[in-house]
Write a structure and sequence with these properties.
about 130 residues; 4 helices; elongated
């Protein structure tokens, strides 16, 4: 399970990095807090962070469940795919929002597998 926790830690660091990028974009584009609009490129950075937050809430427990009830190694591997997908999503979205699809799928699909697999494994374990 230690690999699962490493991936969870990396996902949290990645989220912090995206937050740092939002802060930098605020300065570059003159968007004073609490504003979240006013420059399209800033808004892209902000949406990357917010969309990542929406997924990380599902990712962390899904990784934990899958790692506990199915396979820690597979959970960690799927988590790494998620991390790569999130970076591709971020770079694509900031460059051109229309280019975010591949990164989105590479982060959403692993979460779906982790969640469904974790639920299946937990149900199977509870039935004995």
């Amino acid at each position: 399970m230690s690999l699962v926790f490493v991936v969870i830690g990396l996902a949290l660091v990645q989220f912090m990095y995206f937050g740092y990028q939002v802060g930098g974009a605020r300065g570059r584009f003159g968007i004073n807090a609490p504003s979240i609009t006013g420059n399209e490129v800033f808004e892209r950075y902000f949406r990357v962070q917010q969309n990542t937050l929406e997924l990380i809430v599902i990712l962390v427990p899904a990784l934990w469940m899958f790692g506990t009830y199915v396979s820690a190694q597979w959970a960690a591997g799927l988590g790494v795919v998620y991390l790569v997908g999130r970076f591709l999503y971020a770079f694509g979205y900031v460059k051109d929002p229309a280019k975010r699809s591949a990164g989105f799928m590479l982060s959403f699909l692993p979460i779906t597998v982790l969640l469904l697999g974790g639920i299946y494994g937990a149900v199977r374990a509870s039935l004995g």
